[in-house]
Amino acid sequence: MWQTYFQPTTLPETLALLQSHSSQARLLAGGTDVLVELQRGVKPTNTLIDISALHELRYIQEDTHYLTLGALTTHNDILSSAACHRHALALVQACQEVGAPQIRARATVAGNLLTASPANDTIPPLLALDAELVLSSPTGHRLILLTQFYQGVRRTQLRSDELLREIRIPILPQPRRSLFLKLGLRKAQAISVINLALVLTGQHEQISDARITLGCVAPTVVHAPTVEDFLIGKKLTPAVCKEAAHLVLRDCSPINDVRASASYRQQTLVNLLAYGLERLSSDTPENTLNDPRPVLLETNHAPQPRSPFRGTIETTINSQPAHFEEAAQKTLLNLLREDAGLTGSKEGCAEGECGACTVWLDGQAVMSCLVPAVQAHQASITTIEGLGKDGHLHPLQQAFIDCAAVQCGFCIPGMLMAGAKLLDEIEQPTQAQMRNALSGNICRCTGYRKILDALELVGGTKK
Ligand SMILES: Cc1cc2nc3c(=O)[nH]c(=O)nc-3n(C[C@H](O)[C@H](O)[C@H](O)COP(=O)(O)OP(=O)(O)OC[C@H]3O[C@@H](n4cnc5c(N)ncnc54)[C@H](O)[C@@H]3O)c2cc1C
Ligand code: FES
Ligand code: FES
Fold this sequence. Notes:
Largest sheet: 5 strands, antiparallel
Distance between the termini: 49 Å
Number of strands: 19
Bound molecules: flavin-adenine dinucleotide, FE2/S2 (inorganic) cluster
Strand content: 15-25%
Mean pLDDT: 94
Strand order of the largest sheet: 4-5-10-6-7
Shape: globular
Number of helices: 16
Helix content: 25-40%
């Protein structure tokens, strides 16, 4: 899919590479959009500049003025951050709705902003929170408001020699209530049909400032200025919520597409906004998270210092050292299957949708079809072949046998790797956490009940 792969480890090195290759190369962070696009032949490129080894860009900082997210902040990082829960709850809620745990472990918020689809879930909350972007190029940095960043569908102000270095969210002194809502065609792995964010500021329930932003109803994510103006000075009574919601139709122009018709979008938008306003009229920010302990499928957060990639991938697979000379143009899944001879991980879709390729990469459950093989350089990989220990099956493998959870078996390696990672992360998960953990894994034989039974047998929920 690509011929040349750079993995710089410092920002100056990255900016120099961008300058010399800017017109032909593509930047890659988590790769969850780039690899899908390359698989589909969208924006093809010969050269990838992978910024995932720039550990200096993975941070969340809080000071008196800003909550700041480095460019490599993942959706999972947001879910785990107390500062984000304090100052950007709508963003946390949006990150919880993106894809599935294996996607959220790799995908960055910056990448979501830069793909610039009007359906992307982190854009409405960041727009409503007045986010600012710091863009870096070889000639310096510039600051741009998110509200000025988008030019149209998938078009932004980012120049080809620039990268997004950090996202800043102003911290307000006054209390604010915020909420993100999404309507998709299913609960996980679903592009939004409609999404929206609400950020209301004010004391004694009277609204002094309202930010309402809408996704999937215009070429870019937009504010709803009629609703925002209407809400100022008001209290959220049921009548106000209803009237405000109807006004939203003046602020958007949805289209028909594969996911919904324009009229369906209009009707559901009114209802969703009314529901959101009513929810904010009674809720405190603390109790508006769907799951107070979201499943991450990650048990090792700290990035380890690594020697830079220089053409050979040196890695550890199932506790055995391995090196690969000719795999830099491959995905991790293809490296495992073709070069390492480990065919337990399956390719169901090659687009991050089915979970059959799930392996562990440095303690994270990942969709290996969306991970460039070079991202495994100096890392530790566990595949289904290494899940059991010392000749014994993993307890979850035994439970799959005991519960007769296997039909054709194609999805089972991915189910096991996701399920076993959940049990590493949370010893006794709830049923909701189990469903969340497996939400990125599809079984074409539809044997979900027995698969959940097996997980419950080991996780202890079921007697
Ligand atoms: C199965 C699946 C389900 C998904 N579900 C959802 C969903 O529910 N909601 C949703 O909103 N999205 C969803 N996505 C989309 C995707 O996961 C997000 O857009 C993700 O946040 C992109 O981040 P990334 O780090 O993977 O970006 P990448 O794929 O690495 O990059 C995305 C784009 O940003 C550019 N880029 C990345 N970082 C920088 C930077 N620092 N500076 C300049 N350019 C940069 C890249 O060149 C590329 O154009 C899904 C994707 C998949 C595969
Ligand atoms: S998610 Fe990787 S093959 Fe389907
Ligand atoms: S058991 Fe056949 S795909 Fe799941």
